[in-house]
Amino acid sequence: MTKLNNLEDKYWSGLEKIVIFGFGRQGKKMYPTLNRDFDIVAIVDNSSEKQGKQVDGHTILSFDQAEDFLHQYKIIVTTSQYYYQMIREQLYSVGLTENIDFVMYQQFVTEWYYKYRNKINVLKTDISLTTLCTLNCENCMQFLPYWEKGRRKENSLEEIKENVDIYFKCVDYLLDLDIVGGEPFLYSDLRKFIIYIGEKYRGRIGYVGFITNGMIVPEDDILELLKEYSMDVSISDYSEDIDYKHKIDQICEKLEKYKISYMRNKHIDWFDFGFPKNRYLYEGEDAVRHMQCCNSIEHILDDKKLFYCGLEWSAQKGGLFPIEEKAYVDLEKMVSGEVERKAILEMIMANIEGGYMEFCKVCGGFGIDNNNRVETAKQLKKA
Hints:
Layout: H1 9-12, E1 17-21, H2 25-37, E2 39-44, E3 54-55, E4 58-59, H3 63-66, E5 74-77, H4 81-93, E6 102-104, H5 105-117, E7 121-128, H6 157-170, E8 173-180, H7 190-200, E9 205-212, H8 220-228, E10 232-236, H9 245-257, E11 262-265, E12 270-271, H10 284-294, E13 300-302, E14 305-307, H11 310-317, E15 328-330, H12 331-336, H13 342-348, E16 373-374
Parallel strand pairs: 1-2, 1-5, 5-6, 7-8, 7-13, 8-9, 9-10, 10-11
Antiparallel strand pairs: 3-4, 12-16, 13-14, 14-15
Helix pairs in contact: 7-8
């Protein structure tokens, strides 16, 4: 069985012109690669704040403005799973059909390039430089305050290099590389890491971005390197909850000075994952549906393995949850020929034995079936 069979040749082979629907965080990340490989006829977004703005000569259109020509082109929906549900209904309402007239970008990137370019293109992969952080959030999505003592540390530069090298022996192109922590700007070998990625692999990665809480202002030499290698910064701004707005303003000022593209993300909804304190309980078919709803794209590279879910990786790494082999693909086995490279794509599309990870049974996830939210950036006292 495979999940790489949604796009039929009669509709999708020879694709040249597309419409992008969605130009938020995901759309902006996908744009450079899609713009490189296709003729983007139009960009559509439901946000009135984005409509009318220019992107490389394209005026972002509303759904109503684009409706007359949407039947003429294939539509790639570049939003989260949450917003995709609404957009799908919009497109259904004008007689368009999923996987014939439009498709979610995750399916498209994974399947289209494999079938029609013979490429293993991965939508998104995260690398954690360190699990040390400047904050101690009660509802941290990596559960860092609850990790077993002694497990939180920096990853050595040599270990990270080995992971990246083996990854690109298996993967042809990565559309979105997020550098995470903890707090990645705490990393002691940050300069060497940036140069390594920039010199050796920048041409095989679409978007590279550092995800920071904005509490550390990078030194000028780091900013010079980010500019040189076209690496972005995504700031999770918690200054309405924690008193450090001056730091956020300072980092934004310096990023603008160096002409580094950045996103300042405010009013961030934090999901209630339940784990580890108040675990959910999904069983059987409920667990299968729950994993499908979550549809995680938070894949993480560590220990020469690519893990499907960053939440589960973190729970395992912190000693909070048992390791399960179906939660990752072993890249060493792939390089040796024991496992086909296609296994990466199947895992990314959640083609998992039994239909769910064991961790899905206890985690609330990112999906539309999780309507529970928790207080953003609530701090615990550090021990």
